[in-house]
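<context>
A single protein, sequence plus fold
<entry> Chain with its tokenised backbone below
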Amino acid sequence: MLLDGKKIVVTGVLTDDSIAWHTARVAQEQGAELVLTGFGRGLSLTTRSAKRLPTEAPVLELDINDPEQVQALTDDLKKRWGRVDGALHAIAFAPEDALGGRFLETPAESASTAFLTSAFSFKTLAVALLPLMTEGGSLVTLDFDNRQAWPAYDWMGVAKSALQSVTRYLARDLGSSGIRVNAISAGPLTTVAAKSIPGFERFEEEWTKRAPLGWDGTDPDPVARMAAVLLSDWTPKTTGEIVHVDGGFHAIAVAPEA
């Protein structure tokens, strides 16, 4: 029971094939009490998914770019629990014209939306929860390997690079409060969000070829388990880290052409 008695917020839950949902499932199995968040038209999906957990979890609406909803989250959690021990940040979005090979044509406002929602939002969530993390705790975000330029990923790739940097700066500034901040760089998974990326099947093809442990894009469980570990007390001195859960893909170079 890695998370026995922990009070955990899991953001960005949509359907029950998402990393966020599976993290919530594993967290409950490990003893955590949860609150989920969803957003906008997807909130009804979040509510249905919450019912499929081992124990139905309450759902709060959270548009991370709406200051009033962010404050409402803090207020609700203060009344509900009085404290928070950890959170999973699973929030990301890029407009259609910021993906799909249109990098050079993407307008500044679309790139800004990708950054605000996918990277700056981690800071927004951390600030919202900081007054409640009185006993320290752990913040975890979901990343994707972006040391190279991927086909079609475009400004989301830039936003994910920014997310890694936000992770490091949060680790710096929250360490004195006993709060650890880490990111999980997951291999490609066939979630609803991933399917919205043009050419996503090319990611899966590359992982199948190069990951030494293999990779099953339909199984979020390995990523969810690592999230549970990072949210637990078993990583007391790990912060500012990018933990790869990708079958070892990141460690293997592309074979040269014969």
In short: The chain is about 40% helix and 15% strand. The CA atoms of residues 213 and 247 lie 5 Å apart. Helices lie at 19-29, 43-50, 67-80, 108-129, 154-174, 192-195, 200-210, 221-231.
